[in-house]
Amino acid sequence: MTDFRFGRNVKPNDRAAVCWYHPAVLLLAARDVLSSLNQFRNRDERESFPLPMTVIDRSQRQPAAVAVGDEGSEAGDFWFDFIADTGDGGNATYAVARTALADQVVGDAGQVLPRGELLVLGGDLAYPSASSLDYRYRFTELFEAALPDEASYSEAGKALVRGRPFTLAALPQNHDWMDSASTFGRYFLRSKNSRTLLAAEIPQRQSYFCVRLPGGWWLLGLDFAMHDDIDRDQFEQFKNLASAQGLQTEVNGQPVTQRMLPDDRVILLYPEPVWTTPVAGGVYPGGAKRHQLLEGLLQSRIALRLAGDLHHYMRWTSEKDGQLITCGTGGAFTHPTHTRLTTAPIVARNVTNASAIPASAARIVQVGLDDGRTPAQSRPFSKVTGSEYPPIKQSRQLARGNVPALFGSGGGGFWQGNRWFAALLAGLYLVSAGLQLLPFGLLWSALLFAALCLPLGWESRREVSPKWPAWSGTVLALGSGLAHVLCHVAAVSGVRFGLAALPTLTAPLGQAGSALLWPVGLLAGGAVLGTLIFGSYLALMSRLGFLTTNGFSALALPDFKGFLRFCISADGALHGYFVAIDQVPRVWSMNENPQPVWLPTDRSLRSRVHDQFVIRK
Asked: Which segments within 370-465 are labelled E, that is strand?
């Protein structure tokens, strides 16, 4: 439940993180998901976008006359940034925006990383839903407030970075699609006549995008919407771009043919890390997904697959299949890095689509968790040890914080905080106790808690190894979920019998006091015992390596944030730097200068280079 207040007086620490276990948030998220899925069943909004696809051409290198003269940056280097999963807590999102929009970042080893001329946003820009209020409160105001004091603008009022146009490209994730990407479209696809976000150039007209970069590099942003795949128009546009005929498009109203060359390199930006699903997950023989067909066309040109969605940083590498990076550290609560889903072996393999109707000779590329099948065709990825952020050891330790987190206030007002989930459990305990008085009462009581506990346990079904039998995940989900249910039923029964065994306490209270003690005792027992049981379940399952998505959602961790900064050097190599912010400031004050709007007061805003790599041309 969000108390929307806007403007300079509402500092980042006044913009509390989403309390994911607040009953109102749970209901809102469930309503928006069901509504969005129902709309997509009838109409795919991506089919309404204009064609042809806009190609954002930034392939011309920065002239030496306006090159950065700082040490570590050479004339002709092209810098760009990737940030995903931003708008949750104000402290974390603003800290990332301040660091990314500053003139430069200086690493521990003295590396000077200039600000990117291109900012790529990987989606889930505001939580829990994609309303215009959430976008403004949790995303746009925080990024606008983070702009540096002496920003440079062209005569037309557009932002410049080192004399070059500052460009935005954005990809929606599932939360951005909860309003059919309507709010996302207003910021990134339409209404470009007025000042755009960050005064940047935003050329894209589709929810997917293509950026042509210097040195023969291409960045393709794929939009899955709510369908787990790209749509037909999107596939055809990218297919033409990768073919000899090229993509017929326009630049400044003039017809232009854009095409990839055989030795060009490609960065594929996914809205979710498809490599954390089984390698053949959701694919039937002869029914390849379009994004796998696209990978089959691109083949060895793919140098990097990149995604947000999971709120941590991890990197894998392969000699033949490039690199994989999950980087969703832009401001949302932290996800674990120690779970079975994030530590399982990942492979790539080429297969044919020969059984398709009509017949197809197309080859497809599948990337995902190793299922143990056709090992001769599978090429493994190696996880880069030490790249995990947060580190695996700390990730395991953080799992224990689930118990106190469910009693937390969430840093907001009286009506905010996960503590209202404790109030929900208190009400369920009271209702459950009444159900236990009916015939087959224990069964009715169990069914009540099953509606709450089984959906959470069902997440673990897809986190067992793909090499295990198909039924094992269902057994694990049902077994853990039922154990959770039985603990609550036993707790309700224990509170009932405990209250019944206290006649000496109720006697002095009289008949009215005795009647009042029962509901009060059940409510108190539900709020305390129920929350302890629920938090212990989250902590235990997370510690065992399950519940990657929901295991840390109650914690609302503001720390372990960051973003990726890339540089294409003059020799055509792609240099990647993960800029980490270990601890985010919790208190901010007004700046005397107009920009940036707020300055940290409890601790300095520090960043460091946690991981770096080079992909040679």
From this structure: 379-383
CA proximity to 143, closest of 244, 12, 37, 315? 12
Would you say 84 and 309 are in contact if contact means Cβ atoms under 8 Å apart?
Answer: yes
CATH T-level topology, domain 12-390+560-615: Purple Acid Phosphatase; chain A, domain 2 (3.60.21)
- To the nearest 10°, the Cα dihedral for 31, 434, 427, 495? -140
Stretch (H or E) spanning 351? strand 346-352
Report percent pLDDT > 70 for the chain: 92
For the chain, domain boundaries: 12-390+560-615, 398-543
- pLDDT tops 80 at residue 598: yes
486 φ, ψ to 5°?
-65, -35
Sign of the dihedral through C-alpha 580, 586, 589, 594: positive
Task: Count CA atoms within 13 Å of residue 522 on its CB side.
Answer: 24
Q: Can you tell me the distance from the alpha carbon of 83 to that of 563, in angstroms, rounded to the nearest whole number?
A: 5
For residues 26 and 1, the answer to whether their CB atoms sit within 8 Å is no
Token pair recorded at residue 202: 């935003």
Q: How far, in whole angstroms, is CA 333 from its chain's centroid?
A: 9
pTM here is 0.92
Alpha-carbon gap, residue 301 to 267, rounded angstroms? 9
- Check if the beta carbon of residue 106 is closer than 8 Å to that of residue 143: no
Work out the average pLDDT over 220-234: 92
d(CA 224, CA 353): 21
Q: In the structure encoding, which two tokens stand for residue 322, read together?
A: 């490039």
Closest CA to 53 of 227, 228, 195, 242: 242
Could you tell me the end-to-end alpha-carbon distance of the chain, in angstroms, rounded to an integer? 49
CA Rg, the chain, in Å?
A: 26
| CA 561/CA 581 separation, integer angstroms | 5
Mean pLDDT of 67-95: 80
CA dist., res. 519 & res. 190, Å (int)? 55
User: Which token pair is 560?
Assistant: 């372990």
- Cβ atoms of 561 and 343 closer than 8 Å: no
Please state, in angstroms and rounded to a whole number, the distance separating the CA atoms of residues 150 and 102.
10
Q: pLDDT band for position 22 (50/70/90)?
A: confident
**Do 543 and 338 form a contact (C-beta atoms < 8 A)?**
no
Phi-psi sector, 361: left (phi>0), alpha (psi -120 to 50), beta: alpha
